[in-house]
Design brief:
Blueprint: H1 2-25, H2 33-40, H3 44-51, H4 54-72, H5 81-104, H6 109-134, H7 139-152, H8 155-165, H9 169-186
Helix pairs in contact: 1-2, 1-4, 5-6, 5-8, 5-9, 6-7, 7-9, 8-9
């Protein structure tokens, strides 16, 4: 019975891995179950038996991504600018291209809620990590400072530096760190 459970878990993981890889390569509406099943070495029927539907499978892949983001920031403390910037750059190095693709794909009703959830979590993270540094600000000034931090730490900032300009990861991290420090200095 244990061998059967381990085999089922391994099959589930292979399917999730195939779906995650497909989401990195193509837009969500273009992902086909037959291709995912073939990549995972199972039948479409097996995928549907385990996940119920294509949408449920892709939603689960998205949930795994959310858990991975949370893990990226484990141990980061409010006010730790270097740790916060490093966490973001680490995250974007792993899934930044997928995040950009998801944002591009947000006209798809299946993707819109996931993208909005990411935006909300990003803003909440900035409010949490930088809150102590911004506590003395009047509400409109605090909002503007949070807006600036959200932009400085956004996936498009990473994309502009890494993909469009071609900066190295260390240069990208240093530039984002400079932006965040400049924002925090400006509001003190």
């Amino acid at each position: 019975m244990q061998a059967r459970a381990e085999s089922a878990a391994a099959t589930r993981t292979r399917i999730l891995d195939a779906a995650a890889a497909a989401m990195r390569r193509q837009f969500r509406p273009n992902i086909r179950l037959d291709a995912l099943a073939a990549e995972a070495g199972v039948s479409v029927q097996t995928v549907l038996r385990i996940f119920g539907s294509r949408r449920q499978l892709l939603d689960e892949v998205a949930e795994v991504a959310v858990r991975d983001v949370t893990a990226e920031f484990a141990g980061v403390q409010p006010g730790d600018v270097a740790g916060i910037v490093h966490g973001y750059v680490n995250h974007y190095e792993k899934v930044g291209d997928l995040v950009v693709r998801n944002i591009h794909d947000e006209d798809d009703p299946e993707m819109r809620a996931f993208v909005e959830r990411g935006r909300s979590a990003h803003r909440t993270g900035c409010e949490t990590w930088f809150g102590p540094s911004l506590a003395a600000l009047a509400p409109p000034d605090r909002r503007r400072a949070i807006d600036a931090l959200v932009v400085a730490l956004d996936v498009y900032t990473w994309k502009l530096l890494r993909r469009d300009i071609g900066r190295s990861r260390p240069d990208t991290e240093a530039t984002i760190h400079t932006l965040v420090n400049a924002i925090l200095e400006a509001v003190r």
